[in-house]
Amino acid sequence: MKKEIKWDKESIPDQANLFCYIHFNDINRKTNQPYEKAFQNTPHIDGTDLSADWDKYSTPSETRQRLSLQRNKKGVFKNPDNYFISQLNVQRIRNEVSGQIIEHDPIHNHSELPDNRSHSKIIGEKNVETRLKFVDLCKWAIAPAV
Amino acid sequence: MSETLDLEAPVTKANSWYGHAKPDFLNIDEWLVPTALSESRDLKKSFRKASTALIPFLVESGNIVISQNGFVFSLLSVFGELAKEIEESKSLLRLTEDYDDQGGMPISEATWARAIIFITNYANWIYEKTGKIIDTPQINPGPKESVDILWRNEKYRLLINIPSALNNSVHFYGDNRKGDDNVSGTINENAIQEYFAIWIGSLSKR
Questions:
Q1: Which residues of chain A make contact with B103, given a CB cutoff of 8 A?
Q2: What is the separation, in whole angstroms, between the first and last Cα of chain B?
């Protein structure tokens, strides 16, 4: 019998970093930077937050590898090789991007998503200002080849 | 206005802006009305037919002509780099459903065309008024089938979003990369806004 997992929500400190995955089609191949659209809430129609992984409980490689357990809209498992991992500092988000709240949101015993103690949410509207600033704040943890 | 448009009438407007970038180009009371591109199939056809007919005038005037499936855009000859970026941005039209594994949808030709009209109008107008050649922006896919126009250099950054839905506003945000000296809001895409043109002009290389 599968053991039920239960992780408590924790407060994420300023010095923490968050990892976000970026699909290769959301990267400008000339500049090697993510497009601003990469930082939008999911689901795209009415989502209220952007998913990220807290570096206390995940490495960039683990964030990337977990994608292989998620399905895309067509029901096919995602290919981690199609993704690269960006890193955002929590303090800089809080100080420089208005209207964003960062919340730890561990996933356990979900019907579709893999268990993920590091899962966190960047809550708030992703308008032109926030999307523009996110790109300038992020740096690559796993970068696309130049 | 569009309801009085004679789809079979010959093009008669070319000489009025031939060789020049006029701020009222593609204005709401002109026959080339970008806001009607996807509202009326006939008008869309008319736009294509009419704009294709302008090519000889534009080439003769030394302008750079960019065409896409019947849409024709004109740039003053100093904008070679921008013309190249626009040509490359046609790749946005080849994006297929779920291209980003997150349910991303293709970008319509009409939305892309509105983005290109926006850029070319401002580039031509600023050059004619101030002699400045604006920095070349990136033309990127945006959220929800929209197009993002992005300027980012050492001093400034500016993002303009051209939405796919015609009844949604064009939003923009820009600052000096320190979060100061910022501009933001919505803008009418159908006419040149001088305050906005001045701000874009500050992104000029020369």
A1: 43-44, 73
A2: 38
3-state SS track over B106-169 = CCCHHHHHHHHHHHHHHHHHHHHHHCCCECCCEEEECHHHCEEEEEECCCCEEEEEECCCCCCC
ipTM of the complex: 0.92
Q: Among A55, A57, A49, A50, which residue's Cα sits nearest to residue A16? A: A55
B148 → closest Cβ in A37, A129, A133: A37
The verdict on a CB contact (< 8 Å) between B184 and A25 is no
From first CA to last CA, the distance across chain A in angstroms is 47
For the record, the structure tokens of A52 come out as: 């990220």
* pLDDT value of position A3: 67
pLDDT tens digit sequence for B129-171: 999 999 999 999 999 999 999 999 888 899 999 999 988 999 9
Beta bridge partners of A19: A53, A87
Contact assignment for B138 to A31 by CB distance below 8 Å: yes
